Amino acid sequence: MVCTACFSRSDDSMRAIQRINHNAAICEDGAGRQLIALGRGIGFGDMPHEVDLDVVTRTFYGIDSKYLAFIDEVDPEVLEFSAQLADIATGQLSYELSPNLPITLADHIQFAIKRAREHMVVSLPLKCDLEQLHPIEYRLGELAVRGIKKTFAVRMPQSEAAGIAMSIINAAIKPSERRVLAEQHEEHLLDMTVAIIQEELGVTVDRSSFAFARFATHVRYLLDRVAKKEPIDTENSGLYDVLVEQYPAASRCAHRIDDLIQETFGEPLAQEELVYLIMHVNRVAPTSLDR
């Protein structure tokens, strides 16, 4: 954060103390709290100076100073659009979001608009996982894609909803110490699932690969669902017998992982969970699954 001295002023006043650009400045409110304010001419003139609150169009509290240069560069309409999306996300999600979310969203959306205008399509293989595991964030991404089309007259691929959803998910405030311990336990179980795959298939799993990142994401949320006793609810259990026959090695891995989870949590995996687990094992070590 950019730190500055506090001034004694009334609560309904604001003072600009550092210029970002002509229409943005680092300010202090009447309680001495630092913020970034946007509005016509806020950054103009000598510093510090009192700000006419009537010209303030948007304020941001708690923004990291490393984003100040980006605020100077970003399209103001993109920043306002992103701030509105961040407000909606804050109202709909149960977890706390970083105050930097409007800025990181603006960064993502501005580049996504640029890609769309240049007809550059980026594939996001995690789309199905995000839609399944983070339905609220994914719907917010879809809302953003529709809003971008209406606001900026840019048609974006629907897959871009996944990228925006990831930006929101990544803005979750760092977890509590208790959650950190839980995540360490999850990481240990993830390591054990990898050991099972490597032992069963005689391979070395490439932890730097995208396939592993996708597998790790699935396993973490699988463990979270098991711990919360919230099994996945889809209509894909009918695929189980087909996958067991088609991918016997992946099936053996999945059942050994199921044994590990049952030993840890006292509950076996449902067939639907096994379906997704087999598919993810198949993706993380596909060349070894023809036996």
Please give a structural write-up.
With 291 residues, the chain is α+β, with helices and mostly antiparallel strands. It has three domains: 14-65, CAT RNA-binding domain (Transcription Regulation, Sacy, Chain A); 74-169, PRD domain (PTS-regulatory domain, PRD), CATH 1.10.1790.10; 177-288, PTS-regulatory domain, PRD, CATH 1.10.1790.10. Helices cover 54% and strands 10% of the residues. It has eleven helices and five strands. A five-stranded antiparallel beta sheet has the order 4-1-2-3-5. β2 and β3 (34-39) form a beta hairpin. α4 packs across α5 (135-152) and α9 (240-246) packs across α10. The longest helix is centred in the middle third of the chain and has 25 residues, at 177-201. The radius of gyration is 24 Å and the shape is elongated. The protein starts with 13 loop residues before the first strand and ends in a 7-residue tail after the last helix.
SSE layout and pairings?
Elements: E1 14-21, E2 24-29, E3 34-39, E4 49-50, E5 56-61, H1 68-73, H2 76-92, H3 101-117, H4 127-133, H5 135-152, H6 160-169, H7 177-201, H8 210-228, H9 240-246, H10 248-265, H11 271-284
Antiparallel strand pairs: 1-2, 1-4, 2-3, 3-5
Helix pairs in contact: 2-3, 2-5, 3-6, 4-5, 5-6, 7-8, 7-10, 8-11, 9-10, 10-11
Distance between the termini: 56 Å
Range of helix content:
40-55%
Q: Any low-confidence stretches, pLDDT <50, length ≥5?
A: 1-10
CATH class of the largest domain: Mainly Alpha
**Helix-strand category:** alpha+beta
Strand order of the largest sheet: 4-1-2-3-5
- Helix and strand pattern: EEEEEHHHHHHHHHHH
CATH superfamily label of the largest domain: PRD domain
Shape: elongated
DSSP summary: helix tally:
11
Number of strands: 5
The appropriate CATH architecture of the largest domain is: Orthogonal Bundle
Largest sheet: 5 strands, antiparallel
Strand content: 5-15%
Number of domains: 3
